[in-house]
Specification:
about 190 residues, mainly beta, Immunoglobulin-like, 2 domains
């Protein structure tokens, strides 16, 4: 028997359109408008007062793609995801994995690893991240995250288990998530 994991695309949207470069937080922007009035006798141009604005921190995250995989009952499967800081400042991001309800069984365990060598495999150079642990990303930076699910040997044949991986910024609460479905085949 094998256990297959299917993407739960109804649980989480895929990453949106590419981020456009935004000015970094703290960037000053000065602006002065002008208005021109045209009269029969000629035109008059008048500048406005100058405005000095400072770009504020705006956090935005993306976590993708939904993935699927297979493992034997009692085994595990590792799924590779990419976490992207689409905001304009360095951001501390909490990673949380949890079982969801309304399914046939729960995943037996979760493990999260920052895949530092970007090979999609857990290796000696990678960094374990505790469930609820934090990764810090610079503006526009990304991290590859490996999400390993331990599957119970007692999962009922054909039963479905739903789990979620979410990323939440600590300062502003920006979030992104992936929904996954585990399906045991006979």
């Amino acid at each position: 028997m094998a256990l297959a994991l299917l993407a739960g695309s109804l649980l989480a949207p895929l990453a949106g359109s590419p981020a456009h470069a935004a000015p970094p937080a703290g960037t000053p922007i000065d602006n002065t408008a002008t208005g021109t009035l045209t009269l029969a006798a000629g035109s008059v141009t008048q500048p406005s007062n100058s405005v000095h604005a400072i770009v504020q921190v705006a956090e935005a995250l993306a976590l993708y793609p939904d993935r699927g995989g297979a493992a034997a009952p009692g085994g595990s499967v590792t799924l590779a995801h990419r976490l992207v800081n689409r905001g304009n400042a360095a951001t501390d991001i909490r990673l949380d994995a949890r079982n969801l309800g309304l399914d046939g069984f729960d995943a037996a365990s979760f493990a999260l690893v920052e895949d530092r060598d970007h090979d999609g495999l857990v290796g000696p150079g990678d960094t374990p991240v505790a469930n609820g642990g934090v990764i810090t990303l610079a503006a526009g930076d990304s991290a590859d995250v490996l999400f390993t699910l331990g599957l119970p040997a007692t999962a009922p044949l054909g039963a479905l288990a739903l789990v979620r991986l979410s990323a939440t910024s600590l300062a502003q609460g920006a979030s992104a998530l992936i929904g996954l479905a585990n399906l045991r085949h006979g």
